[in-house]
Design a protein that fits this description.
Shape: elongated
Largest sheet: 4 strands, antiparallel
Helix content: 40-55%
Distance between the termini: 31 Å
Number of helices: 9
Number of strands: 7
Radius of gyration: 22 Å
Structural class: alpha+beta
Strand order of the largest sheet: 4-5-7-6
């Protein structure tokens, strides 16, 4: 599966042009070099990081006049990494759901989504501190930058930004999906305490006296 953290640096310049060619059809390194007007060695140097990232793969061999040539193709599900449609689609989907579902129904739906996401990852091992370390590593793989603090006999996972900022805009219920995701992964109550200003920031209280802004204790469920 392609690395979901692939960024503009990897897909800029010649590498981006190689990806564009492979989105149209599978090609050998020599065929790519011919179409781009660069050397075979230059193409190979750009293919290497694309292969490591899981964005491109070897798709078999093609007969040639001298010896069979490796053919490169876009990896399965690579289109999901390259697409810019997911964020606006999800934002509009959530807006439509919010107009059709009651508040309780939308909250329960978001919790279900979080539990479903958690099922995609292996069970975390160790004590709570170790499990939190594992959870923040998983969040980092999704693109989150977080710090862990101790508070009220528990912990706070504080984000520098929000993974779902575009979706969260006007829909705070979305934070409950991440709340349930972490509850399932950590196997202790987790409560979101996210900041929802102009620049949203994730925040989750883990264990201890989990309290939402406003002062009332709360537990995920």
């Amino acid at each position: 599966m392609p690395d979901p953290t692939i960024g503009p640096r990897l897909l800029g310049g010649t590498r981006g042009r190689i990806v564009e060619l492979l989105r149209r059809s599978a090609l050998s390194a020599n065929e790519i070099a011919t179409q781009l007007g660069v050397t075979h060695n230059a193409v190979r140097s750009h293919l290497a990081p694309l292969l490591r990232a899981g964005l491109v793969r070897e798709g078999g061999m093609r007969p040639s006049s001298s010896r069979p040539a490796v053919v490169y193709e876009l990896a399965p599900r690579a289109d999901s990494v390259l697409s810019h449609a997911y964020i606006p689609f999800v934002a509009h989907l959530l807006r439509a759901l919010g107009e059709r579902l009651s508040e309780d129904e939308l909250h329960e739906l978001m919790h279900t989504v979080g539990r479903s996401l958690a099922a995609q990852w292996p069970r975390l091992r160790g004590d709570l501190t170790q499990r939190i370390g594992g959870a923040t590593t998983l969040l980092a793989e999704l693109g989150a930058l977080t710090d862990v603090e101790t508070a009220d006999s528990g912990f706070v996972i504080r984000g520098h930004g929000c993974l779902l900022a575009e979706a969260v805009h006007g829909r705070p219920e979305v934070c409950h999906s991440m709340e349930s995701l972490l509850t399932e992964l950590l196997e202790v109550p987790v409560t979101e305490c996210c900041e929802r200003g102009e620049r949203p920031r994730c925040c989750f209280r883990v264990g201890g006296a989990a309290t939402l802004p406003g002062g009332s204790p709360s537990h995920a469920g």
